[in-house]
Design goal:
The chain is α/β, with parallel strands linked by helices and 384 residues long. The protein has three domains: 58 residues, no CATH class; 142 residues, D-Maltodextrin-Binding Protein, domain 2 (3-Layer(aba) Sandwich); 145 residues, D-Maltodextrin-Binding Protein, domain 2, CATH 3.40.190. 43% of the residues lie in helices and 13% in strands. Strands 1, 2, 3, 4, 5, 10 and 11 form a seven-stranded mixed sheet that branches. Strands 7-8-6-9 form a four-stranded mixed sheet. β1, α5 and β2 form a beta-alpha-beta unit. α10 packs across α18. 45% of the residues are buried.
């Protein structure tokens, strides 16, 4: 039977937030309705008038006969980069996916503040550093699956199963075709030599991508050697760090600098952009795969984990398995210009055009473990 407290919960939500029900999704669980009112409820001028209706709907929504299978996702990935896949998952399984998108830090803070009352079942985010931070914050739980173990190499997942990489991105050297020859390039370490004085553009030390790159170097070379490298790199900056990865690529194309570091999907997005200016900038640069004879190119992941307080654990695990499936991996490659985490799935034609490379085999979980050390080191090196 319907608990009257549910009626008062809806009335409270309506009065406090000026919301009302306009979308009667009778198959949506009441817990999701309360947790995600913004999905269903525009403004209401006289919420008390609809109290009987609200109570009736609350009764329907809480009825076990009408409760549908669902999974609630907090995603730091933009909606257009993930929703088509989630829609496919719903079509294949009949499980409704309720999606909330936001910034990485904001979603982590939301999970922490909601605690055991969170409606979220899955956290989707980018970079192993952020995934590790979510584990350290206690908002993820360990899950194991034969399908996940089969499709996702050990280097791209948490060793204890707290999160799983779902796509791979490399961070190579991007250089100006008309001013730099590939023979002049070799390793990340070489970017710190005087030859590159006033010729390098990079993002700031606030970038998780740069933090993870430095963390990887600490893992391979130790803090002392990495700090010396970072100081040399800073000395070669053509300008103070500013902007995102696309801005660095555009700066190289415009002649502000000769070399930068950027994640591959940013360049892929520019190559395939509807904006002629981005296409033109991308045409002026080329990709160099560093450290081919040593540790390999720095790689990272976007990934997901099951939340610590999920109420739909089985559905959350099904979603992770779907995102690691061949269908989803091909979508990541063809649409997002990311490398599939599943080595059996080929990359897109754009990515293949840049050639193959030796990827660093370091478990990306190590990048999260060393993030704090990397941030401190970059600060000491004067990397703003």
């Amino acid at each position: 039977m319907f608990d009257q407290s549910g009626c008062w919960a809806i009335l409270y939500s309506a009065n406090e937030n000026n919301y009302h029900l306009t979308n009667n999704r009778a198959q949506m669980k009441f817990s999701t309705f309360i947790a995600f009112p913004e999905m269903f409820m525009p403004k209401l001028s006289k919420p008390h008038v609809l109290l009987p209706v609200l109570c009736l709907l609350a009764g329907l929504l809480t009825s076990p006969l009408l409760a549908a299978e669902e999974v609630n996702v907090y995603s730091a990935r933009k909606e257009d980069l993930i929703k088509p896949l989630l829609d496919d998952f719903s079509k294949q399984t009949g499980i409704t996916v309720n999606l909330v998108t936001g910034k990485e830090e904001a979603l982590l803070q939301r999970l922490q503040s909601e605690g055991a009352n969170t409606p979220a079942d899955v956290l989707l985010t980018s970079d192993a550093g952020r995934l590790a931070a979510a584990r350290q914050a206690g908002v993820l739980q360990a899950v194991q699956s034969a399908a996940l173990a089969k499709h996702i190499p050990a280097a791209y997942r948490d060793p204890e199963g707290y999160w799983y990489g779902l796509s791979v991105r490399a961070r190579p050297i991007i250089y100006a075709k008309d001013r730099v020859k590939s023979a002049q390039l070799s390793t990340y370490e070489d970017l710190a030599v005087p030859q590159w004085r006033d010729k390098i553009c990079v993002r700031s030390s606030d970038s998780i991508y740069n933090q993870s790159l430095v963390a990887g170097m600490i893992a391979h070379h130790g803090e002392a050697k990495t700090e010396a490298w970072a100081k040399g790199l800073v000395a070669n900056f053509a300008r103070p760090p500013k902007g995102g990865d696309r801005d660095q690529i555009k700066a190289v194309a415009a002649g502000e600098c000769d070399v930068t570091l950027a994640n591959t999907y940013y360049l892929g997005g520019m190559v395939n952009s509807p904006d002629p200016a981005e296409q033109a900038a991308a045409a002026k640069v080329a990709v160099f795969w560093p450290d081919a004879k040593t540790t390999g190119v720095h790689v990272n992941v976007s990934g997901a984990g099951v939340t610590a307080h999920t109420h739909n654990r089985d559905n959350a695990l099904k979603l992770l398995e779907f995102l690691a499936s061949d269908l989803a991996q091909r979508w990541y490659a063809d649409v997002n210009n990311e490398y599939p985490v599943n080595p059996a799935i080929p990359p897109s034609a754009t990515l293949e055009s840049w050639g193959t490379f030796k990827a660093d085999t370091l478990n990306v979980a190590k990048l999260g473990e060393l993030n704090a050390a990397a941030v401190r080191l970059m600060d000491r090196a004067g990397w703003k």
